[in-house]
Amino acid sequence: MSPLFLFLSFVALLSALGVVLAKNPVHSVLFLILTFFTLSGHYLLLNAQFLAAVNIIVYAGAIMVLFLFVIMFLNLNEETEPHKPALAKFAAAIAGGSLLLILVAALRNVSPAGYDPASFDSQIGMVDRLGMVLFRDYALPFELASILLLAAMVGSVMLGKRETGERNF
Amino acid sequence: MTLPALGWQGLVVLATFGISLLIATYCTYAERVIAAFLQDRVGPDRAGPFGLLQPLADAVKLFTKEEFFPAGANRALFVFGPCLAMITALMSSAVIPFGNFLKFGDTEIHLQGIEINVGMLYVFGIVSLGVYGIMIGGWASNNKFSLLGAIRAASQNISYELAMGLALIAVLMMSGTLSLREITLQQTHVGGGWHIGDIFTWNVFKQPLGFVIFIVCAFAETNRTPFDLPECETELIGGYHTEYSSMKMGLYLFAEYVNVFVATAVMSVLYFGGFNYPFQYEFLDFLTNKTSLSADWAHNIFVLMGVVAMFAKIFTGIFFFMWVRWTLPRFRYDQLMRLGWTILIPLAIFNILLTGGLITFGVIQ
Questions:
Q1: Is the torsion defined by CA of B166, B170, B173, B177 positive or negative?
Q2: Which backbone phi and psi does B161 adopt, to 5 degrees?
Q3: pLDDT for B159-212, tens place per residue?
Q4: Cβ of A72 and B178 within 8 Å?
Q5: Which of residues 103-122 of A touch B (CB under 8 A)?
Q6: What's the whole-model pTM score?
Q7: If both were cysteines, with which of A56, A169, B257, B264 could B27 make a disulfide (CB 3.0 to 4.6 Å apart)?
Q8: Are the C-beta atoms of B144 and B235 separated by less than 8 Å?
Q9: Cβ count within 10 A of residue B284
């Protein structure tokens, strides 16, 4: 395990904890952005440059900006925070705890596969190789995903459209 | 004294950083001189010869002004906002190839911070992060008008990022690579001989529509007139930096100039051939065969001329940005949004279709 990996994992875990534990929702969002950055760092360590860049562009650059937008407008603070009943908190703790248990149980006996330096393909994960695989072996799932995205786009435009008679400003 | 290759590369990174800051500093001076020229005024002429020390005087003024924290502001994020704006502005120059490589015997020094094969995506990712500095600063000020200004700025940046990305896709389709260095190297004649078409290999001639979309989006992304809605002092409240003073304000304004520098550098690389210049191979041929220089030095002078050409293109771009600023009036916000969403994005999609069609039928490649 390289020191870089350890550092990235440390920051990733710390900022992920920050997302949950931060009192201020805006701080939570900023911690989440930091988490995405460390995940991109992990992608880079796995030699997936394209995935790392796209992760930054899509998640950190677009989706989280919209999160931040909404949270800043909502003006969440201590007084307006809804207090959940104790039962809901208890149920959430149990559900989260059992998920952790399953994950740990599933990954406990996994040993990293390692790689053979002699036959290792250094181009794996690069953008041209990714494109080859996507368009040759997975053309149909790729096209289906694009149709799904198109449908979502049309849906959001429909939702955002003003009905006749509504005010413009 | 010998430095390992990585050490030289580190020096190049440092130089890139220094040059970005220096050019941004003198952009503030150039902006005033050009404004004065276009408005038939004298401009700054007190500090030093021709007012050349004006940026220094400005820095001293900004540093010595009172640091002000608004009541109820989130102090940590209030300081973090301008830092983030500056960091994201400076990060993107790392992948820009300012020149080809210098040769000293066996060592080759690439005049580029770092060459990554997703260079264009890297620049695009950093640009999309630029919004955070503005949003965090606006929110942390604890002022409704700052927050509204930040939202206004962020909406503008997000809207124009889309059209910018779509314009870039057309370039990508032609170049087939995301590496900025390879995109530059493609924009020249391989071989030699006398070619009047030396500059017609630049992407701007193959992608005129894409270039127009890109430059309009670049104006919007760097918050420059005619799209400087994020900071229009006269019609709307100042914007996200209403509550800022002293050097924190300075950092926001400075980040804008770094962004202008990076935007023009990216534009030179993508559309104006980067470090290529007309008759470069004739020049190299002349240096190798007609002068007594060694092969290495002939190559190095040829490459350094390329760096000069690159910076000439960048400075022309920066001048164009300033020329436009002092010529065109500001858009209204709804006009800005309409231009972005209903004109530029459909045009960019049309450009992609057109490029795809032309590639399919073999007109261009």
A1: negative
A2: -60, -35
A3: 898 899 999 999 888 888 888 888 888 887 665 444 555 667 788 888 889 999
A4: no
A5: none
A6: 0.88
A7: B257
A8: no
A9: 17
